[in-house]
Amino acid sequence: MLIAQHILDKEGIIMPYRWPEDTGFTRIELAVEERWCRTCGGALTTCDHRHHRVFTLNGPLHLVCKLAHCPTRACPAHPQTLSPEAETAITMPWWVLGWDVVCWLGQRRFARHWSVGQIRAELADTYQIRLSDDAIETYIHRYQQMLAARQGDPQMLAAAYAQVDAVSLAIDGLQPEKGHETLYVVRELERKRVWFAEALLSSATAEVQQLLAQARVWAERLGKPVRLWISDKQDAFVRGIAAEFPEVPHQYCTNHFLRDVAQPVLDADSRAKVKMRRTIRGLRAIERAVLAEQRAALPTRTPAPVLSSVEGHSAETPAPETLPETEARAVVLDYCTATRGILNDDQGGPLHPPGIRMAEALDEVRASLQRNLEAQKGGRRMNDSLVWPATSTGGSVACRPPKRRCSPRWRRCGRSTPPSIWPVAPATSVRPSFRRYSNSCKGALTRSGSTWAR
Prior knowledge:
Blueprint: E1 2-3, E2 26-30, E3 45-54, E4 61-69, E5 82-83, H1 99-111, H2 116-126, H3 133-151, H4 154-160, E6 167-174, E7 182-188, E8 193-200, H5 205-222, E9 226-231, H6 235-244, E10 250-252, H7 254-261, H8 263-279, H9 283-296, H10 322-343, H11 354-376, H12 384-387, H13 432-447, H14 449-453
Parallel strand pairs: 2-4, 6-9, 9-10
Antiparallel strand pairs: 1-5, 3-4, 6-7, 7-8
Helix pairs in contact: 1-3, 5-6, 8-11, 9-10, 10-11, 10-13, 11-13
């Protein structure tokens, strides 16, 4: 038996759900379980009906709750209206979602880490439940409140720690961004449970000590002594634990200890990355020049294909001499993309510093450029006026290509290079444009070689 009350949302406003007119409901009538008044002993009578429509995973339900009260006006319980308890087994009063849907939301959000958009799409596609993002966030917030209340229930805590002789506690602060509130979390390590968490604007000793006092109350409620405290040894933690738990050992967190030990290594690695990024410049200028050449080399489209009397190719198809140049430009762009990805790689820790990986990867790029330049030696040369018309003079004449092509083999070095990351141009596709850009790239990498070696 429950006393019917209006349950408001977090804004204090009841927002009714607009059901579509063609919704099919399953009607369920619920009555008050008790038939007699507990105060005067008189028979209860039905005074009103409350219609409650809810979504469930099995389909929409139409709950007809028969409200009852004591008809005797002299009875002190006469003004109270009683509601059937069976309603709370399906949903809470004034909710639009049943318990099964709310638990489904919490499981998808916190166990599977689904976004609100994914949850909304799955509800609409699988269960034909159409809710807004605000409604889903509201019910997720209610799920968190109920979960926190369940985790902090004294009876459940006593059952969970029945076989534990002593508890070990840890405290740490989590701050999303600088200037925001810091969320302080108190965890118990024997059963790996979060006891409570609270957001504080300040990390002063007085405010932190209130959390430690609350932890002492929890331990006294369980009747378990505190064996150990673990933290990052902030001044507020040291003073607060010494005041609230004077006889309890205070241990330095292993994770924070290793992080502090490795901090000099990470600082040196960060400085090395800055020097390498500062040395390697001009990637964007090289890409712009190559793209400008590509746009200049695009064929001019004509209404009808006209065959050339000399080479037998249409006007839309570039000449065979320009195809190797197109391949060389694509290789140069691949080199620039790979180098930029290396310079932006910041993943790693003290055991695998990203600066060392960056130096090794840049050495591989430089070795790949050197192999391309060596493979070009002995190959067919073209006059630079075909590739660089802006630098050629009016009296220059393009050289006729030799009748026999030279195709030198690749000379591979001992270090293997991934072909998907470090593209290697064929010997026949190396041209003055690629040679010019690769020399500039190699020069930038060579200038920083002494820095990496140190």
